[in-house]
Structure formats: structure tokens, C-alpha cells
Write a structure and sequence with these properties.
Mean pLDDT: 84
Radius of gyration: 28 Å
Order of helices and strands: HEEHHEEHEEEE
Shape: globular
Number of strands: 8
Largest sheet: 4 strands, mixed
Low-confidence stretches: 5-11
Distance between the termini: 74 Å
């Protein structure tokens, strides 16, 4: 009953507010003046980039939007920063240890040398293998990168590969 009364009051007061309930809608024209002095409010252009995270101890391909143009450095910086809140809610995580920092990247031909902080070595076993794979698969999705060598705090290091062996050559 209260809803019906409120609806009746609303319908009765609409004409008093200058809103016509009888007749077709009319077009209003507003002169905004010269828009030349108004700058469009936009953020940086974004680019979808490929990355790999982990779900149920398996690598999962994802995309993230990064400022364009995305570089190998910006992509790997984003990767080592860990999963985003939406990714976490989706059950995704990173095997790259928290606190790992990207110290630098160099490219020789198609081989990227990725220098990470020693925090990267804080995991072992299957998690270390997944962390290495996250970096390698993410880096090799970038055009021109075919393989990766690792350094920790500036010193080139061997990393585990799927066979269980340690590899110092590009992976």
C-alpha cells in the first residue's frame, strides 16, 4: 500500500517539476562554446601482454594491460611484482618469491639475460622450476626473444629445467 501511495505522489508531482508526461521527448541544444581549450582526460595507452602465472602447480597463460609500448623490462617487472588482486581472487599465484626484484635485462641477439635479485633463489624444488618457467615463457613471448639466461645479483647462474638438471646455457 505504501508503494502504491508513493508511486501516485510521484506521478502527480512530475508535471509540477516541468517534466511533461504528455507528448514526445524533445531535443535540447546546449552551446558549449569553443572546445579548443579543453583537453581530453585520458590515461596512458595500454597494451595487452602475455605472462604466465601458476594455478594448481601448472603454468597458466594470462594477459595484463601495461602502458604502451610494453618492453621486455616492463613486462618482467610486472611479472616479478606478483599476482594482482583479481588474479589472486581467480586462484592464480606466482612461484617467483615475494621480494624478488628485476635488476636488469640485456639482449644479445635473441638471448635475454635476466638479472634478478638473490631473493629469486629463496624457493627450491617444483616451485623453483615453476618460477624459472614463468620468466622464460613470459620473456620468450616478446618478439625477438628466443631464450633466456639467468643472473642473480649480477652473477650468471644455472637454473633447473624440466629434466631436473641444472642448465647454464640459454633456456
Amino acid at each position: 500500500m505504501v508503494r502504491r501511495t508513493m508511486l501516485l505522489v510521484l506521478v502527480m508531482t512530475l508535471p509540477a517539476c516541468g517534466i511533461s508526461v504528455d507528448g514526445p521527448p524533445s531535443v535540447l541544444s546546449v552551446d558549449l562554446g569553443d572546445p579548443g581549450g579543453i583537453e581530453e582526460a585520458t590515461g596512458p595507452a595500454l597494451e595487452a601482454v602475455s605472462m604466465y602465472l601458476v594455478r594448481d602447480d601448472r603454468l597458466v597463460h594470462i594477459t595484463r594491460d601495461l602502458p604502451s609500448p610494453a618492453t621486455l623490462e616492463s613486462i618482467l617487472m610486472s611479472l616479478v611484482s606478483g599476482e594482482t588482486d583479481p588474479e589472486d581472487r581467480a586462484g592464480l599465484r606466482s612461484s617467483i618469491p615475494a621480494g624478488t626484484r628485476l635488476r636488469g635485462i640485456s639482449l644479445e641477439g635473441t638471448v635475454a639475460q635476466v638479472d634478478l635479485s638473490s631473493d629469486f633463489a629463496a624457493v627450491g624444488g617444483e616451485q623453483e622450476l615453476l618460477a624459472v618457467a614463468q620468466v622464460v615463457l613470459t620473456a620468450t613471448r616478446v618478439e625477438g626473444v628466443e631464450s633466456v639466461v639467468f643472473a642473480l645479483d649480477g652473477i650468471r647462474t644455472d637454473v633447473p629445467v624440466s629434466s631436473g638438471a641444472l642448465e647454464g646455457d640459454p633456456v
